[in-house]
Every structure is written in structure tokens, then in C-alpha cells.
Amino acid sequence: MSAAERTEQAAVRTVLGDVPGEALGICDAHDHLFLQSRLLPGQELADVAAADAELRAFRRLGGSAVVQWTPYGLGRAADELAGLSRATGVHLVAATGLHQAQHYAPGTVEAVLEGLAELFVDELTRGIGGTGPRAGLIKVAGGFHGLDAHARSTMAAAAHAHHRTGAPIAVHLELGTGALDVLELLCGEHEVAPRSVILGHLNRSPDPVVHRQAARAGAFLAFDGPSRANHATDWRLPEVLAALVDAGYAGQLLLGGDTTTAAARSANGGPGMPYLLRRLRPRLELALEAEVVSHMLTTNPARALAAAWRAS
Predict the structure, then answer these.
(1) Which candidate, 113, 122, 134, 108, places its Cα nearest to that of 16?
(2) Neighbouring C-beta atoms of residue 237, cutoff 10 Å
(3) Which residues carry this modification: N6-carboxylysine (predicted)?
(4) Structurally, how many domains does the chain consist of?
(5) Is the CB of residue 133 less than 8 Å from the CB of residue 127?
(6) Is the CB of residue 87 less than 8 Å from the CB of residue 52?
(7) Which domain holds residue 266?
(8) For residues 264 and 258, what is the distance between their CA atoms, to the nearest angstrom?
(9) What sections of 18-176 are H helices per DSSP?
(10) Is 171 inside any structural domain?
(11) Residue 5: inside a domain, yes or no?
């Protein structure tokens, strides 16, 4: 097979290299092993041993892949990811991208905005920080029921990097809102194929009309961060997913844990990554067929994360 033919084949870009989507197995489609934000002082995810323990706990329940949505400048610990993946046997996908400006120290965002698209492309094709693994997706963020100038500029850079590399774009929706604005910008103005967009946190705004509109457009819908009662997560999620399955969108639904604080880790008494399989999966299987839930954890993330990667 020629190099050109290999390039055209879709694959998931993990920290250990590109793999076929079906190799992922059971996937936590949105989580964090490492994360440091000025909005979460004292709750940093920065302990390598704790990350290793969390992955092993997830692995013991059958989990075999985790997508870390931590973007540029928020303590990704990219140089640790390959070692953790080898040691635990869990596939890891790293992110490039940029979060909302409020998460960064003053001056951090301004220092990279002018060359943001090139930064994303470099991290997707050459490696994070020049020495780390290659990122496998671009993470950006919207605002509450809208898109500010920062969101528009970062999404424009993400779209540019997507067109040059093929990378999927994962979007933090603030409290689950703004999905249609994001799709208008990325897929309308910037011509990103909807199947290359993952909309995150939709469980935080359980609006069935918006969910169906986003699904009808062709995007992947991520329902992540279970166990957070203040975000209308667990108790509404079965009916929300059942409605989308009944409407014919079962193939576009993803599930994730979104662990963002040290207190939330399972070793510290929190739900952590294991909660997705230990509590959420059996709960969903009471409302949906087990096979449908299985597809949300395996087949769907394999499709959402796969790209026909280009050098740039």
C-alpha cells in the first residue's frame, strides 16, 4: 500500500500512533487526566500516579480508551501520556485547541492568538510542544447561549486546522447551550463537515428540540459529566438519549466522564472515570437496549474520532 493510500484511510490518532477506530474498544469520549485552570484553584489534576490509578480503575471495568479534552496551556502533561498509555494498556487521545479565555492566566491567550491555526496544525502533525505525542482532536469552546469574539477566533483557527489535517473538532458548550450557533459558524461559515464536529455537554441543557436539530445537522452529540446533579445529568439522561435513539440518531451519541477536579477522582472518594461504566452504563441499559449503549461506548466514538489524516 502506498503512502498516499495509507493517508486516505481513516484512523484515530492516539498518543502512541494512529490506530483503526475499532481498536479503541470501550471509550470514555470526554475526560481529563491532567487539567489546571485558574477557575479551579487547589483542584488541579497534576499527579501522574493518580492519573495512572484512575486509568487502571477504568480498565478493570472494561474501559480501553480515554479522550483527554485538555487543550493548550491548561496543564495537559502531554509528555506523560504515552507512558501512561503503555503502562495501563488504555488508548489515549490528546487534544490541541484553546478553551475560554477565562481559564488562562493573563497574557497567555494573547501570546498565541495570532498564530493559533499554525499551533493547532503543529500539535496535530508534529507533536505537542515539539517533543510530545501528536494530538488527535481540536478542543474549542463556546459561550453561554452564544459566541463571543474569542470563541469565533478560536473556532476559525480550529476550522483552518481541520481543513489542513482532517482532525475532528470537539466543542465545549457552556452549560450545554449554543450548539446551533456553533454549527452555523463551523459548518456554515467555515465549511467543516458536521460529522467532524463533536458537541460536548449537551446533557447540561436537556432541550430535546435543540438536540434533534444538532443531530439532524449531522454532528456527534456528547453527553458527558455524569454524577453532577446540579447539571441535570443522570436523572434526565435516559429519557434524553431514548428520545434521540427513537428519532433515529443512535449512531451519533457519545458518552464521557469529564473529570475536572482532584476531588472528583475515584481514589479521593469521587465518581471519577469508573463511574461511566460502574453506574451510568447499567442505568442506561434499563432504559435502552444494552446493544445501543454498547454502540455509544464503542462504535460511535470510533467513528467520531477517526479522520483521514493529512500532513498539513
Answers:
(1) 134
(2) 20
(3) 139
(4) 1
(5) yes
(6) yes
(7) 13-305
(8) 10
(9) 48-60, 78-88, 108-112, 116-125, 149-165
(10) yes
(11) no
